[in-house]
Amino acid sequence: MTVLTPRRLDARGLACPMPILKTARAIAEMEPGELLEVLATDPGSIRDFDAWSRTTGHELIERTQEAGVYRFLLRRK
Question: Are 42 and 15 in contact (CB under 8 A)?
Answer without folding.
Answer: yes
